[in-house]
Amino acid sequence: xxxxxxxxxxxxxxxxxxxxxxxxxxxxxxxxxxxxxxxxxxxxxxxxxxxxxxxxxxxxxxxxxxxxxxxxxxxxxxxxxxxxxxxxxxxxxxxxxxxxxxxxxxxxxxxxxxxxxxxxxxxxxxxxxxxxxxxxxxxxxxxxxxxxxxxxxxxxxxxxxxxxxxxxxxxxxxxxxxxxxxxxxxxxxxxxxxxxxxxxxxxxxxxxxxxxxxxxx
Length: 217
Fold this sequence. Notes:
This protein is an alpha/beta fold. It is about 35% helix and about 25% strand.
């Protein structure tokens, strides 16, 4: 698959955020990545998933949700990565930017979130129900989205490692307020980071199938 990669700066809720756009020659939808705690757009796990989505004809947007100054603060305090309101507001603003971006503006939008980024993705999905068509969470904390969960209208797939028992329980808690739009799937033999052989590839396959199903124009 021929994929064009472009580094851009996206305005979002009063800040400028660095992002990498990966756009296949033939594109059926766009997936915006919300990285997890202490991670960035260069996360090897998210890059692996992004490549799998690109191979299925989906454009991807990998973005740093914190500025460089904020990342330095977060490295010391770990406070901003848990500011779900901040992450959700910025993701919603990026969704708005994607809706008018010349190359991607015509395409349906999905969100892929990991760890605390999954909660931010669900908050953004609740805030932009007319634009966000699907959500996938990888080892996420959807419970941190709180009251926003009951306002999510996009089909939402929650992927959790079978050995990540605490996060399984937290995802099960989030299923009730998702009220029919959520689906929980457990990846056997996987821990929180899906480092075991074959487990991240399964996540990528599940995510690609979910997005290609729900991001049809």
